[in-house]
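can u do me a favor
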């Protein structure tokens, strides 16, 4: 999506698709310019045969309802030989409803 003004149109669909924009590429290049060693990390992440990213439910890492910080979540991922790169708060996310509305 080349025109940032079209972003609102894409949000109306409430799709969970990810669009690689010029802005994202600019941010990536800025990070590499600041720290050249990140280049190998990004090469692996974006290589078709490189790293894979999976969205997993938090309850495989932590007890539901417990309060924690991100470092605790990182440690829980490390115990599973996984790297946690972020999380999504369900209350803040847009969820898609099934065609039946449930």
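np, heres the sequence
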């Amino acid at each position: 999506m080349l025109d940032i003004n079209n972003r609102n149109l894409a949000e109306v669909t409430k799709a969970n698709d990810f669009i690689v924009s010029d802005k994202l590429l600019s941010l990536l290049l800025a990070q590499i310019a600041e720290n050249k060693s990140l280049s190998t990390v990004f090469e692996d992440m974006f290589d078709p045969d490189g790293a894979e990213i999976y969205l997993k439910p938090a309850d495989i890492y932590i007890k539901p309802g417990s309060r924690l910080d991100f470092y605790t979540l990182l440690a829980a991922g490390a115990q599973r030989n996984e790297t946690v790169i972020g999380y999504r708060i369900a209350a803040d996310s847009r969820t898609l409803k099934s065609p039946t509305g449930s």
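The mean pLDDT is 77. hope that helps!!
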